[in-house]
Design brief:
Layout (H helix, E strand, L loop, with lengths): L3 H7 L6 E4 L3 E5 L9 E5 L11 H21 L4 E5 L15 E6 L17 H9 L2
Antiparallel strand pairs: 1-2, 2-3, 3-5, 4-5
This protein binds guanosine-5'-monophosphate and zinc ion.
Length: 132
């Protein structure tokens, strides 16, 4: 399969590994937002959240927590962002599910997405559609 992360998992493409177990790999992003930016991926090829079973997601999030702990303790990062770009419209470039774990520093000038306000009644209309 022509998936760059599957190639990293198999060792065909080298990576700098932060953590590895039977199910999960965490490695440094080649183009970090901040140094230490780590990607946490399932070893099986899953495209996105919809593709992933709950057990795999639970395993992944546990490793995300471990990585965040390491970034805080070993890079003196006061905090970190956890992000998943789920599907191309959301910015997913590599179609193999991955969590970004991005260490943050004071004054690192990283701006997250812009926010807006709801128009009158818009929030309740949206809620009717998405309430689970
Ligand atoms: P996405 O936009 O799909 O959420 O993020 C994909 C991430 O994978 C990007 O941040 C990009 O820098 C990283 N990436 C892409 N190709 C490689 C690679 O060959 N090696 C590593 N270590 N990271 C990669
Ligand atoms: Zn893959």
């Amino acid at each position: 399969m022509d998936c760059i992360f599957c190639k990293i998992i198999s060792g065909e493409v080298p990576s700098l590994k932060v953590y590895e177990d039977e199910f999960t790999l965490a490695f440094l992003d080649i183009n970090p937002v901040n140094p230490g930016h780590t990607l946490v991926v399932p070893k099986k090829h899953l495209v996105n959240f919809e593709d992933a079973d709950e057990e795999t997601l639970c395993r992944l999030i546990k490793i995300v927590k471990k990585v965040g702990f390491s970034l805080k303790n070993n890079l003196s990062a006061p905090g970190y962002n956890v992000a998943v770009n789920n599907d191309p419209i959301a910015g997913q470039v590599v179609p193999h599910l991955h969590f970004h774990v991005i260490p943050r520093k004071e004054n690192d000038n990283i701006k997250l997405w812009p926010q807006r306000s709801y128009a009158g009644g818009e929030a309740t209309e949206i809620l009717k559609k998405i309430k689970i």
